[in-house]
Amino acid sequence: MPRTVLLYGLGMPSRKRPTPQDAVTARGILLDGMARDSEVSELAGGLAPLHPRDDTFPGEVLLQIAADALDWRGASRADPLALEGMPERFLPECAFRGRQNKKLQFAVLAAAALHGGAEPDLLDEVAWWQTDDFWQYALYAAVGYIRAAASRAGVPVRQVCQELANAQARS
Description:
It contains eight helices and no strands. By secondary structure, the chain is mainly α.
């Protein structure tokens, strides 16, 4: 009896691609949630339905928000934001082990690259992860950078989130 081989992606219905409105929704979930002091797990729960399987979205949006937080804070070569101990200081509710540390490090450095004007190759990097969780690490990076920016400026996280949301609305 002959076997039928179905090549992945061929003949399959196309999945829903994220829309610009999905990006706005993701941004709102993060910034509004953080302004209300939501837990990271609550933010992840709100973002999860926006994530198409085997896609980096909403990771790109979250990295851009992290880069915006660096910009808001005025991070530069002359006045850098120290990353040492970032998870312990700004993500104390999260525990990272083994490869998780490298994934977080990539997301944190990718956001810094965006802030500096470089575009990281997300697909090339996350392909080796062999998991569909990049967007979660982008979330951790965004939360960490927003909290770090607020701490460095001596203002509540709520203020940083409101100002980031207002800046996006003006652009």
